[in-house]
Amino acid sequence: MTSVDFGPCLDPKATNGSTGVIVGDAGTVLFTRDRGATWDTAELRLEDDLRQVQLLDRYVGSPDYARLVLRTSVLTWDIGTSELVTHHRFSGEVLAYDAFGAEEYAIAEGELSVRSGPEHCLGPI
Question: Would you state the torsion angle of the CA atoms of residues 93, 28, 77, 9, taken in this order, to the nearest 10 degrees?
Fold first, then answer.
């Protein structure tokens, strides 16, 4: 395991319906929709090590997609599906990624990227 996220909208008092994703080496991606009581393996056919995951939502509520950070790219994954889309490729190694508010930030070797990002919940953590 290299990264885990339950998204920006996790209600600490909720007892169900909270999505979470864990990523790790050799393309390992696990996800839960019940606050971690049970976990499923995503069938994404990734072989590269995943460095980071960040959950986002299109609407206020439980996260419904994730950004998966690999060595030189950031992918978009609709949670629970086998669909992956390349969100951004970098010429160097990705060192950090964050989506917050209306912007996304990525730092790669020799490169800083600031892009318009998703609108997502900024509720209590």
Answer: -100
